[in-house]
Design a protein that fits this description.
The protein is mostly helical. Helix content is 62%, strand content 0%.
Length: 147
């Protein structure tokens, strides 16, 4: 499943999410699954599943921004930390699946947000898996990983 997710993201980065072409059909290849298809639960070797592929990215960014402000005010508060992590994961995932955001913008943004999760919770497995997936995609394309 991880390879399917990687293929889908690479395809989006490489060709800008264009619709399947006649050449693909003639070659007998199927396009990557639509973003609203849920992947199976992660077993450690697969990318995490999507719970919010068609979410309102602007609203989630607003919630994430507010959670970031709350965290800045109360960095030691465990409830604030959990709210920040939840808002961050939702926003990053929605960003990755947002059709309206160009691939060259959404993957670096998602990567940046996932990295902020690890600053608050270094053991967060979901953020680690998505970071590795995105970094692997950039590496497979021979492109530098965004900072």
């Amino acid at each position: 499943m991880r390879s399917v997710v990687i293929f889908a993201i690479v395809a989006c980065l490489a060709i800008g999410c264009s619709p399947p072409t006649k050449e693909l059909a003639e070659a007998g290849q199927e396009p990557a699954p639509a973003p609203d298809v849920q992947a199976p639960a992660s077993s450690g070797s697969e990318a995490p599943k999507s719970d919010a592929p068609k979410a309102d990215v602007a609203a989630l960014k607003g919630a994430w921004t507010q959670a970031d402000k709350d965290l800045a005010e109360k960095p030691a508060d465990e409830g604030v930390q959990k709210a920040y992590i939840a808002a961050s994961l939702k926003y990053a995932e929605a960003t990755m699946y947002a059709d309206e955001i160009p691939a060259k913008e959404k993957y670096p943004e998602a990567l940046r947000v996932y990295r902020t999760v690890l600053k608050v919770d270094p053991a967060n497995q979901e953020a680690k898996e998505w970071i590795k997936t995105i970094e692997d995609i950039y590496a497979s394309m021979g492109r530098p990983v965004p900072e």
